[in-house]
């Protein structure tokens, strides 16, 4: 499987916690950006050994802020340049208040089958704290509109550990979201990234976060309620109804190949017989001129093996041991004897003849677990 990621960096307003490559107040650059994007896609198609695409993910930023005609033209260009599978999963990220019925209809006609909506919280106070431009009523209207137009595969993004949010406020978010029955829910912790307003506010002591005990209760409550409602936890932060896992993201977690275009986009693909990991330039001015500047890294076997472990252990089902052996010509157990024994003895890692996976506690401290595989 091979995915294709498209980065759209435009937003109405940048949220206080966001460190993604995105910006507001540049609406006049949207058409110019898409022209540059289509040029880059042409270059990528000429370079990549494999032009088959099984999933497309249009992320940002806020892709739904663009005129739908620009999204449609990009997908048309992709289909001309690449062999897009008939059953390809095509997702677009959207924020409430940024899409209309006309946009949604255009998305459907262009083959977009999945929409990922950034709600983050059902509490208006929390949305203001985060710097979101919508309130919960805006979300309800947008979500209903997507359903009316025919979207039957919708993800909702949520955040926990929001400053000043009580556990009861968070419980309300979980209960409210489950009532509208999305097919997929992503639940992420708020992370303070350097360079964001939240990071600076926290350095000055201006943010008050939930206690560790409250955070633990929030997570347990969410997982319990999701399970009761028929959502399967298939990755550390992702829950899906049966048959609604995100195929594009699963390809990342299986350390598959993926192409990428757009400002700051990351890719991993085969070219000239080598595996290349690539990061695109993040300077808008140079990108708009068609000067695409890449940081390339050729992946060696040992690095790829660790990446497969790191990503695979994010999945609840863990690492496919046969696939690991077939890919690298060495068994997982021979490659990592010491960390496997240590982590198994500590109850953090489990395995059978087919898979190796983390215990629930292991998942909660995954970064600590992964350090063992680096030694």
Features of this protein?
single chain, 375 residues, alpha/beta, TIM Barrel, 2 domains, nine-stranded mixed β-sheet, three-stranded antiparallel β-sheet, 15 strands, globular
Concise summary:
With 375 residues, this protein is of the alpha/beta class.
Chain-wise SSE layout:
Blueprint: E1 2-8, H1 30-47, E2 52-60, H2 68-81, E3 83-94, H3 101-109, E4 114-120, H4 124-130, H5 136-149, E5 154-160, H6 167-180, E6 184-189, H7 197-203, H8 212-228, E7 232-235, E8 238-240, H9 247-253, E9 257-261, E10 266-271, E11 274-280, H10 284-288, E12 294-298, H11 301-312, E13 319-320, H12 321-328, H13 332-335, H14 337-345, E14 349-351, E15 355-358, H15 360-364, H16 366-374
Parallel strand pairs: 1-2, 1-9, 2-3, 3-4, 4-5, 5-6
Antiparallel strand pairs: 6-8, 7-8, 10-11, 11-12, 13-15, 14-15
Helix pairs in contact: 1-2, 2-3, 6-8
* Low-confidence sequence ranges: none
* CATH topology annotation of the largest domain: TIM Barrel
**CATH architectural type of the largest domain:** Alpha-Beta Barrel
Please tell me the overall pLDDT: 96
Strand order of the largest sheet: 7-8-6-5-4-3-2-1-9
Q: Please identify the oligomeric state.
A: single chain
- Count of helical stretches: 16
Can you summarize the main beta sheet? 9 strands, mixed
- Total beta strand runs: 15
Q: What's the Cα radius of gyration?
A: 21 Å
Total number of domains: 2
Could you estimate the helical fraction of the residues in percent? 40-55%
């Amino acid at each position: 499987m091979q995915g294709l990621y498209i980065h759209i960096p435009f937003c109405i307003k940048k949220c206080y916690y966001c460190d993604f490559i995105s910006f507001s107040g540049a609406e006049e650059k949207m058409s110019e950006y898409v022209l540059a994007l289509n040029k880059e896609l042409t270059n990528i198609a000429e370079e990549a050994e494999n032009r088959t695409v099984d999933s497309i993910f249009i992320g940002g930023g806020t892709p739904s802020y663009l005129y739908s005609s620009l999204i449609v033209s990009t997908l048309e260009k992709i289909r001309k340049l690449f062999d897009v599978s008939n059953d390809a999963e095509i997702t677009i990220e959207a924020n409430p208040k940024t899409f209309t019925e006309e946009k949604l209809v255009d998305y459907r006609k262009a083959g977009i089958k999945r929409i990922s909506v950034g709600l983050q919280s059902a509490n208006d106070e929390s949305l203001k704290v985060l710097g979101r431009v919508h309130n919960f009523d805006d979300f309800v209207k947008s979500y209903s509109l997507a359903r009316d137009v025919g979207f039957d595969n919708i993800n909702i993004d949520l955040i926990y550990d929001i400053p000043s949010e009580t556990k009861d406020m968070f419980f309300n978010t979980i209960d409210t979201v489950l009532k509208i029955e999305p097919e997929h829910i992503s639940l992420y912790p708020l992370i303070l990234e350097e360079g964001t307003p939240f990071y600076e506010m926290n350095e000055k002591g201006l943010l008050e976060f939930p206690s560790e005990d409250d955070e633990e209760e929030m997570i347990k409550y969410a997982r319990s309620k999701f399970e009761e409602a028929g959502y399967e936890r298939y990755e550390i932060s992702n829950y899906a109804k049966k048959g609604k896992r995100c195929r594009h993201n699963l390809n990342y977690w299986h350390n598959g190949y993926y192409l990428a275009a757009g400002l700051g986009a990351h890719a991993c693909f085969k070219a000239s017989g080598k595996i290349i990991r690539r990061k695109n330039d993040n300077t808008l001015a140079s990108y708009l001129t068609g000067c695409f500047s890449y940081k390339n890294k050729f992946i060696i076997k040992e690095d790829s093996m660790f990446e497969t472990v790191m990503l695979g252990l994010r999945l609840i089902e863990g690492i496919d041991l046969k696939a690991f052996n077939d890919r690298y010509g060495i068994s997982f157990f021979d490659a990592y004897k010491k960390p496997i024994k240590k982590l198994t003895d500590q109850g953090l890692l489990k395995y059978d003849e087919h898979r190796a996976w983390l215990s629930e506690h292991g998942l909660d401290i995954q970064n600590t677990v992964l350090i063992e595989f680096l030694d």
